[in-house]
Structure formats: C-alpha cells, structure tokens
What does this fold into?
Amino acid sequence: MNYILLGPPGAGKGTQAKKIVEKFSIVHLSTGDMFRQAKQSDKAIASLMEAGKLIPDDVVVNMVKNRLKKDDVKNGFLLDGFPRTLNQAVELDKMLKTENIKIDAVFSIIIDNDEAVRRISGRRMCECGASFHVDFLPPKVKDLCDYCKKKLFQRADDKEEVVKERLKVYDAQTKPLIDYYTKAGLLVDIDGSQSESAVFDQISKFIANKK
Ligand code: AMP
It folds into this structure.
C-alpha cells in the first residue's frame, strides 16, 4: 500500500497525511518535515525554505533514496511533498524499480490559489506540534496554545509573500506532475475545497477499496 499526496501549499496535505498513516498504519514520508529538521543545522536549506524555494533535486532525491531503503517502508508508505518536480518523479520511478516497489495511486488535492493564501497565511503553530488558524481554528486565548499554553508562532514560509512564491513554484514545477501521473494511470482527483473530514473520507474509501 504505497501512495503519493500531491497538491499546492495549503491543500491540507500534512493534515490528511497524518490521519491516513494513522488509519492505515503506514509510514509518513514528508520531505518538508525532513527539511524542517535539517534546516536547524544547515543554513543553505534554511534560507531556501524561508524564501519559499525548492531544495535542489539531487539533495532531495538522495535523501528519499536513503529513506526508502529502510525496513519500515516495506509495510506501506505515504509520500507527502515528494516528488515536486518532473525530474524528481523520474528519479522516484527509478528508485521504485530498483527496490521493486509499486505506487498504488497519487491523490491530487486541488484548491484555488486565493484559498491557499488564506489558509496558510493565517496558520499559527506551537512548538508542541499543535496547529491553529486565526480565522478557521483560533486558539481559546489569542496567540497561546490551547494544550501547552506556549506562545504560538507563524512559520517563516507561511508569511503571505512567501506563500505567493511557493504557489508560483508549485504552478511552474509541480503542476506538470498531474499530467505525468494521469498518463501513468495513477491520478485520483480530490476536491480540496471540501471539509477536512470529507477529503479524508474520500481518500480513506479509495484506499480501503484497494486493499
Ligand atoms: P512542505 O512542508 O512540503 O510544504 O515543504 C516545505 C519546504 O521544504 C518547501 O517549500 C521546500 O523548500 C522544501 N521541500 C520539501 N519537499 C521538497 C521537495 N520534494 N523538493 C524540493 N524542496 C522540497
């Protein structure tokens, strides 16, 4: 059971991914999470991320290649945020062939750009991992986490001007993957403007029927 989640920033990939991997007991492979970890000690990665730019393909591909060699992916995985360029998709196909792994489907979550900007620029995070939104999911006390009471912060790459850059990068570099995976017969369209639970239901039903 191996899946890919594709979609612009703000489509809800991270939220859906967490729920899917929990429900189906598969591994969550988020390159964004891996780079958020790496950026603590790597200034080049930090500055690319904070500008909303992509990390060079060779760096990303090597990281994923090493990750796919680990045993835990054998029971199934969900790739979130990778591939993000055509070159990454081609490299992924080569890795999968070498490791004898098959992708079952690519979920393409679609939302429009204005909605993406609204969703991401209002997002506020807590160190504990909790996430809020100034309009859609405000904390009980302004700027404080409901769970651990720490001060909420905005991710550097969630600032409005950076979000617009990330969307531009998505349109230019990642959108062509929709065509790539349609041709491969793997694409499953998901309307990301539905509620979080409706999106989750749609994806869950698809996976459950495939099992
Ligand atoms: P995400 O959380 O998936 O939106 O990723 C956050 C940031 O990590 C992106 O804006 C990129 O700077 C970097 N990143 C994550 N995945 C990739 C990838 N597959 N290729 C290049 N850069 C990536």
